[in-house]
Amino acid sequence: MLRRPRRLRRTPAIRNLVRETHLQISDLIYPLFIVEGENIKREIPSLPDVYHFSIDRLEAEITELQALGLEHVLLFGIPDDEDKNADGTSAYCENGIVQRAIREIKGRAPQLNVITDVCLCAYTNHGHCGLLDQYEVDNDTSLDTIAKVALSHVEAGADVVAPSDMMDGRIATIRNLLDVSGYSNIAIMSYSTKYASSYYGPFREAAGSAPGFGDRKSYQMDIANAGESLIEAELDVLEGADILMVKPALSYLDVICRLKEHTHLPVAAYNVSGEYAMLKLAVKEGVFSTDIIMETIVGIKRAGADIIITYFAKELAKQLKEQS
Q1: Against a cut of 0.90, is the pTM above it?
Q2: CATH of the domain at 143
Q3: Mean pLDDT of the chain
């Protein structure tokens, strides 16, 4: 008997009925870049349709996100240059840029899930993700500072903290500090598998976080390694992570798949700035139709991502609402 798989592709209703992968608005996290100043909504040149916001301009953006049904934001703070120093101390200041943004958002939209990026790169004058010993990032002396940053975010009202520094042992240090401080209910979304990738270029411009010398290859993962991701993930699970993340997404779909197969924790994938910028440019130049955006994000979901951080979140939410 001839098998006819095309029977299940014949109409839109049948295709919807048997569809294996379903992208939902609740899967999406939208990144926000917060800057000092007033009345700022400034498009980021390398990230079309993505903006720097001053805290006083967040209300309208949060209202739009909620109207689209988006439930999660990931905050990146960008302090003024004069607030940066070798130790990144402004990252855990009570009145720091992220801390004030958290309070503003939670005051206006308490039900919105506020996730914060925890790292030092935007707050140090050398642009590295940890503290330095001469010209080398010192893993162990960085841990307490990184944990202080996470605690300061939680004290300001963050729902989830997301350490992105890739220091060994930082999940355990953060978990311990949160627990002894009375925040054992706060989840950690670990950038467990973060590669030393060229796809971060537009983000580093947006966040002012490019390293002042050298690179991050001594602490971010080698782009050629996949098995190592399982080691990193296992360590973070043992240290108390609640969600694991792969960053970037598109060139690492195999890694997303591996983590999904080998862990029982939710897996997040970061559709990073370079991936976003490439697709936006290709659509603008007529190389692809806008359909390529949904196809790309569904591909990340199909690879195993339960959660997708993407600058396309608003665009996708509009399309998903129209389809519902």
Answers
A1: yes
A2: 3.20.20.70
A3: 95
